Amino acid sequence: MSGDAALVERFLEMLLAERGASVNTIEAYRRDLTDFATSLRARKRSLESAGSDDIRTYLSELEAAGMAPRTAARRLSAIRQLYRFLFSEGDRTDDPSTVIDSPRQGRPLPKILSEDDVDLLLASARGKGEPEGLRLTCLLEILYASGLRVSELVALPLAAVARDPRVLIVRGKGGKERMVPLTEAAREAIIAYKNVRQSFLPEGATSPFLFPSRSSEGHLTRRRMGQLLKELAIECGLRPGSVSPHVLRHAFATHLLDHGADLRSVQQMLGHADISTTQIYTHVLAERLKTLVTEHHPLAKGMAKA
User: Superkingdom of this entry's organism (predicted)?
Assistant: First the structure.
């Protein structure tokens, strides 16, 4: 057994004896560390002699090979634990992994709904009886027309729609106010809902909120809003996990960009302080275009068959 292999086996024995690691975990560590040792050996280095630059070179090799950042981060975790062990055992006088940054995971692309999915949800909400259907339709129309955060939506003051507003004045994070235009459909839904709004209050009671409830907050809760959407998704034959207030906020932004809106305007309507937060939606569009070409372009189909 080579020197590197012996060090790895001692480390794995420790994991098994002291941490009760499973067989699958042991095998995963063995594969990751063996791969690292193989990379070192190609550069005439070993686990005992490797430095921080050797670990960085290995991570660069993984990136060049197209390995996902999450998988590379797992490999680095195994390397760190190995060197922590070797340092504690006196096999090394230093730990070269302490100065290595983890691979950037990247921001996951947001879940989105298609325009057809949104139309399906709205049609189902409109088909419900009063007053629940009118309230749900109003919530959906405002959310899809404005991209509000769910906390902003459920706490909207009645004064915000006292007349027939063409825009909403929304107080968002940090107390910052922004103006968000409303569609005609959203304005009509607000007017229809206001005719039955009193039914969500005890007889004779008043409330400063557009969506009052008997909750401790005095308005519809975020949790209840989420439940209403899950129930609606099931009725529409959509996966309940694919529909939430935040997913509708994503749909608002993505569909606007789909139809030619500029990124800065979408940023302002979403209330993002930094445009880099809004730019995630351009990545969504890029992924959708890539999928469209892969699945429907005749040349792409021909290449797939070849």
Answer: Bacteria
